[in-house]
Write a structure and sequence with these properties.
alpha/beta; Rossmann fold; 7-stranded mixed sheet; binds 5'-O-[(S)-butoxy(hydroxy)phosphoryl]adenosine
Length: 648
């Protein structure tokens, strides 16, 4: 019988004795101890968890000059050495990465630490031969294949800054990010498999680099091994063959930029979130270790794509920093059937499984029979991330995947925080559906009202983080100080980091209610209302648009667009136009941002100052009585929109 890691006591789940025994952390004391002196606490974690070439001076362990702050200032290290070199003595032949391709007839690839080390060194030399230097930005536009981890690690070996762009993003989205980062080198692939079909990346990469500073594109041949490249395009495989086996690791400062990753804010333009090296590494290492309790034989599978922060920290860096084994899977969860994920867990003895509520809800819909086909005895810990997990999904996850024996660690964090920050630790508990838990030891969050005062118990307010700020927290917005200040610090006068999430206290634990800004979470992905509106407005036929999220059973939220066309003619081909708009969004942003529904309206409800009242549109979609029509310049628009949405 597989071990039971949780027990129910008066209706609530707690870690069992077996879990307490294997847990790195199993006493609440850790919170108190960390809170006494968070800087000392983190310094100790940084020192014991990582390999430093030079230690920082004690007085520089944490330097704060709000809204900026630095951890371990003056400390020197190389990130790839921490993920690879230091494991070569005792883990050289252990699997570092297990890659599962989507096609069932293709063999999985296992890379040991020694093999991964060699490939990373070679590719670091390739990058150097292409003129990449410390501090240069390298674009990475790759599917979930081992070369993605190799490319990222190679950047860190030479101190280059990687900027990974999700492979399902459009050419336009990639172009905007390459331009903003002024990348001179891009690493991409000819394509990948998705739902049994070949998806092209080559054409998208070609289109994206036009008008950017990209001089060389290294192409991984994922689909066609014999593909020939020319001009700016070079073959990854060919370059690797000729590259030397060893690349001396570039020493960097703890506070040097390690990577940037773009994410949506409230404006139309994505922001380049800056993560530094030492602070990020410290938080990545310890959150992975303590949240998921990785032990030597464990295999961790975080299902996120490397295009997202979760893929950076928990599908790549966290497990590798810990000398653990990370599993990555190229394809869709339900290909060729809805049991693919469970089959992978069984086949590779996955012990830690980390995914998003939206995926769980998809499997709920597919039915339990798909799970029942496979033994999931290897599992120890389940994780959830990306959006609040509803009680129904939580219960299903626990019962069907965790078989009532594995704890669910619901982790709250953001692209900006680099690593998890609010969750329950597996050896401590309690595990309560919809409750994320407590601030990670050595960090602290408050819930404030509009005036910056702590809210009363049970009242919802703004979730903020207080000083000292977590080591993994962002170090700015790439080349945009103003945006950094305005987005994260202004609301509470530079005193607190503003998460833009709402929350309330529940029995001393934090319950997250969701975004308080114009950002929605679509299938766990972040999408700004303004970003989608900009994309739609850019269409030749559109005059203006307004986007609002509506709840969706599987995806959590989906965007609905209200569009005013340029032509004043009555719309008699709405279905065709809707398709046209959706196609346009696919092209501008990518299919993950595609609106679920497009309504064509004559006019949008606006205030005297011209502000679009999205709240009223939301009311209409939710069949609620819209309030505040008095403030509109065009109250008559509301009735007309209601008719279009609900028909009379
Ligand atoms: C936003 C950040 C965290 C990495 C993946 C998403 C929401 C995330 C939870 C959770 C409730 C959550 C928040 C946050 N969120 N995890 N466990 N419970 N909400 O990163 O794309 O930067 O999105 O996701 O609203 O602000 P992201």
């Amino acid at each position: 019988m597989p071990e039971k890691y949780i027990v129910k006591k008066s209706g609530v789940y707690w870690p069992s004795k077996a879990m307490k025994e294997i847990a790195y952390v199993n006493s609440e004391e850790i919170y108190k101890e960390a809170a006494k002196d968070p800087v000392k606490f983190w310094s100790n974690l940084a020192e014991t968890g990582l390999l430093w070439e030079k230690k920082w001076e004690d007085k520089n362990a944490y330097v704060e000059k709000r809204p900026y702050f630095w951890w371990f200032k003056g400390g020197k290290l190389n990130f790839s050495v921490n993920c690879l070199d230091r494991h070569l003595d005792d883990r050289a032949d252990k699997d570092a990465v297990i890659w599962v391709p989507e096609p069932l007839d293709e063999k999985p690839v296992k890379l040991t630490y020694k093999e991964l080390y060699k490939k990373v060194n070679k590719f670091a030399n390739v990058l150097k031969s292409l003129g990449v230097k410390k501090g240069d930005v390298v674009g990475i536009y790759l599917p979930l294949i081992p070369e993605a981890s190799i490319a990222m690690l190679a950047c860190t070996r030479i101190g280059a800054i990687h900027s990974v762009v999700f492979s399902a993003f459009s050419a336009d989205a990639l172009k905007a990010r390459l331009k903003d980062g002024k990348a001179k080198v891009l690493i991409s692939a000819d394509g990948y498999y998705r739902r049994g079909k070949k998806e092209d990346l080559f054409e998208k990469a070609k289109k994206a680099i036009k008008g950017t500073r990209v001089k060389k594109v290294v192409m991984v041949s994922r689909l066609n091994k014999n593909r020939k490249y020319s001009g700016k395009f070079l073959s990854f495989e060919k370059l690797m063959k000729d590259a030397p086996d060893y690349c001396h690791p570039q020493t960097v400062n703890s506070e040097d930029i390690m990577f940037i990753l773009y994410t949506s804010g409230t404006t139309g333009k994505p922001k380049g979130i800056i993560h530094d090296t030492g602070g990020y590494a410290t938080q990545a290492y310890w959150t992975t270790k303590w949240n998921f309790n990785l032990r030597d034989k464990d295999v961790m599978w975080c299902t996120a794509d490397i295009g997202w922060i979760t893929g950076h920290t928990y599908a790549t860096y966290g497990p590798l920093l810990n000398g653990s084994t990370t599993l990555i899977y190229e394809g869709t969860p339900d290909f060729p059937r809805p049991d693919r994920w469970w089959k992978i867990i069984e086949e590779f003895d996955v012990s830690v499984f980390y995914t998003a509520p939206t995926a769980i809800r998809m499997f709920m819909k597919a039915g339990e029979k798909w799970v029942k086909k496979h033994k999931l005895n290897s599992l120890k810990i389940l994780g959830s991330v990306g959006e609040p997990i509803d009680e129904e999904a939580w219960e299903w996850y626990l019962k069907n995947i965790g078989k009532g024996r594995c704890p669910i660690i619901d982790t709250w964090w953001q692209t900006e925080t680099g690593g998890t920050l609010i969750n329950v630790l597996p050896g401590i508990g309690p595990f309560i559906p919809t409750v994320a838990g407590r601030s990670f030891p050595g960090t602290s969050h408050l819930i404030l009202d509009d005036s910056g005062k702590p809210v009363k118990k049970g009242k919802t307010g703004f979730l903020v983080q207080e000083s000292p700020f977590a080591p993994g927290l962002l170090h700015g917005v790439y080349k945009n100080h103003k945006k950094y200040v305005k987005t994260y610090w202004k609301k509470f006068n530079n005193k607190y980091y503003d998460t833009s999430d709402g929350a309330y206290w529940y029995k001393g634990l934090l319950r997250i209610t969701g975004r308080t800004d114009d950002v929605m979470k679509v299938a766990g992905h972040r999408l700004a209302t303004a970003e989608l509106e900009n994309a739609i407005d850019d269409s030749k036929i559109v005059n203006e648009s307004a986007v609002v999220p509506i709840p969706d059973k599987i995806r959590g939220q989906v965007p609905v667009a209200f569009v005013v066309l340029k032509s004043k003619e009555p719309v008699d081909n709405a279905a065709d136009l809707e398709k046209q708009i959706k196609k346009h969004v696919d092209k501008k942003l990518g299919p993950t941002s595609r609106p679920a529904r497009v309504y064509f309206v004559e006019d949008l409800p606006k205030t005297r100052s011209g502000k679009i009242m999205r709240r009223i549109l939301k009311n209409i979609l939710n069949k609620e009585e819209p309030k505040g029509l008095m403030t509109l310049v065009n109250p008559q628009s509301v009735e007309k929109i209601r008719k279009i949405v609900w028909g009379n």
